[in-house]
Design a protein that fits this description.
globular; five-stranded mixed β-sheet; mainly beta
Length: 320
């Protein structure tokens, strides 16, 4: 039997979206907020079902208790020298992450570590869930400061190349309701960040034919995805320049990993005008008649939750 989604919003002003404290979408949504200051609060309820619906709302107001360690950015668990653990049962969802698209049913834990000298950092996280979101941030709980946001299943290990000295925060959002959320780091000698991990180091595709091998493993997400997908995954960059009109065929093939791949062709820059976008599993392709000019190619993992992979990219240039 289909159960319609119900939207539950806790706010201080029904007329302002900015006043929302928590908004949850679920078949039976539940909101818990700790230590609310004195004031008047409003509860907004809306159903995805178009027919008339009724609700039963229960509100419990109790004396404020301090959040457990790791539940909020007030007290992230330090994992610089030892594994940190936070019990999932007592957690709420307090922060945000760019790849946390669906917040219903999620709760988050916070960890931090300090990098003394530039190092590669291996981060391992573990929960009892099958669907987790892991974000590395330079400001706790602020998605705009992310270095990376990835999905994992239960246990996952990620490598961050050449992290500069400083403090870093790990947000683990999970659907686990029991057991521990754990995180640990291992510091390794620094290795160079591959040039084409960012737009400024885009690799050249040279006429009349180029075939290159690449990887998205441990790459960052540096640019929005194309119109055929939406972004939020690791990406790599290539470029080419045409002195005269040419037909250009680009073929991208995943090697290992899992999930669909995305190939985005743009004019004049990695955030320039999109010319064409293609997806496929394991191969994505773009074929275009192009005017003279500079072009950039973005390779991206297209499937949410897919495993980052190696790939090959082939570029064919021919007269129009």
């Amino acid at each position: 039997m289909w159960t319609p989604t119900t939207y539950l919003n806790l706010t201080t002003d029904c007329r302002s979206a900015a006043a929302s404290l928590t908004c949850i979408a679920d078949s039976a949504p539940r909101i818990r907020r700790r230590a609310l200051p004195p004031g008047t609060y409003f509860i907004q309820v809306e159903s995805a079902e178009r027919s008339s619906s009724g609700w039963s709302i229960t509100v419990a107001i109790t004396d404020p208790l301090p959040p457990p360690a790791g539940d909020t950015c007030v007290s992230p668990v330090d994992i610089t020298t030892a594994t940190g653990r936070v019990a999932a049962a007592g957690l709420d969802l307090d922060g945000s992450a760019s790849c946390l698209s669906f917040t219903s049913g999620y709760r988050d834990a916070y960890f931090m570590f300090d990098v003394a000298t530039t190092s590669d950092v291996e981060l391992t996280t573990s929960t009892t869930s099958f669907s987790d979101i892991i974000a590395l941030q330079t400001s706790c709980g602020v998605s705009g400061t992310e270095l990376r946001c990835r999905s994992t299943d239960g246990t996952g290990t990620q490598l961050f190349r050449s992290l500069a000295p400083g403090r870093y925060y790990v947000l683990v959002a999970t659907q686990a309701v029991s057991g521990n959320i754990s995180a640990s780091v291992r510091f390794l000698p620094p290795t160079p960040v591959p040039a084409n991990d960012s737009c400024v180091g885009a690799s050249e595709l040279v006429a009349p034919f180029t075939r290159a091998s690449g990887t998205l493993v441990d790459f960052e997400d540096d640019a929005p995805g194309g119109s055929c997908r939406g972004g939020g995954s690791a990406d790599a960059f290539y470029r080419f320049t045409l002195t005269e009109p040419q037909r250009v065929s680009l073929i991208l093939t995943r090697v290992g990993g899992s999930g669909s791949m995305e190939l985005v062709l743009r004019r004049s820059g990695c955030s320039g005008t999109e010319v064409r976008c293609g997806t496929g599993d394991p191969t994505a392709a773009v074929d275009e008649l192009l005017a003279a000019g500079s072009y950039f190619v973005q390779v991206e993992q297209a499937t949410w939750g897919g495993a980052s992979s190696d790939f090959t990219i082939s570029a064919f240039f021919s007269p129009p």
